[in-house]
Structure prediction request, 326 residues.
Amino acid sequence: MVKVQNIAVLTSGGDSPGMNAAIRSVVRAAVYHGLKAYGVVDGFNGLIKDEFVELGYSDVSNILQTGGTILGTARCKEFHEKEFRKEAYENLNKRNIDGLIVIGGDGSFTGATIFSQEHPIAVIGIPGTIDNDINGTDYSIGFDTAVNNIIEAVDKIRDTAASHHRIFLVEVMGNNSGVLALNVAAASGAEEVFMPEKKEDMEEIRGKVERAIQANKSSIIIVAEGDQMGGAKEIFNYLGEYDLADKVRISVLGHIQRGGNPTFLDRLNATLYGEKAIVSLIKGKSNLMIGHQQNKIVSMDLKLALEKKSIGNMDYLKLIRKLSVY
Prediction:
């Protein structure tokens, strides 16, 4: 077992509320155990460009409650190439950094896994994505805040929808995952949800919209941005072909979903994940992801996160449709 002396932490991919809480936990847990901690600026880009900042106890004060990430984040095409990964390792090595904590999604974990296979660096992944689509963990940092942001917006949209007896197509994030859309639809009382994991019977959906319009009722339809129809605009165009667009409106929530102060769940889980990551490194562990299973904080093989996408609880879809029959 190699004793870890210095660690680095980075955030990669899309930002998510709670990343700062995880950074704080990582740094302070490292300090508690006598390790030196470094933050890497702008994800894997910072590894390659040699942009490191030493972080101590006070450097991470008053960040737990803030959204975004103090380290910055970015996607890094160069990290796909072996020569740049070698440069990244050399930048870590010259600081005697032997442990790397990566906070991000499956793309970030893919890069981290390859990196650790090529170079003697212990790597631990912390799931941080509002999509909550990481296999092997029930919970990803940022998900709860994003869900609450969306529900708050949907509640406000519903006021206008009800006043004007309109159908609103509310497009939410999720890339190629419908987990966010599915959970939001169930919790906000939406009448329908479109998600990439399920091909819809458009005639059935059209009939549902027609009945709502004929009954002069309002409806909320949640649309995942990666839906098989192509998103809210494409669904609107489809309905327009049947002269149903007059009572239909589109609301694309965009990046507002990612912002704001993290909720209790995101702060707590991020803090627990960060501390668990440091303890894992101290125990000589590597290529692990910290996660949440059955109300416990656990660690698992990082490769598990890359095997497939989590699709969420599809029973929610049955519930949504059971409670929205016209």
Notes: The mean pLDDT is 94. The chain has eleven helices and eleven strands. The longest helix spans residues 143-164. The domain at 6-142+262-307 is CATH 3.40.50.450 (Rossmann fold).
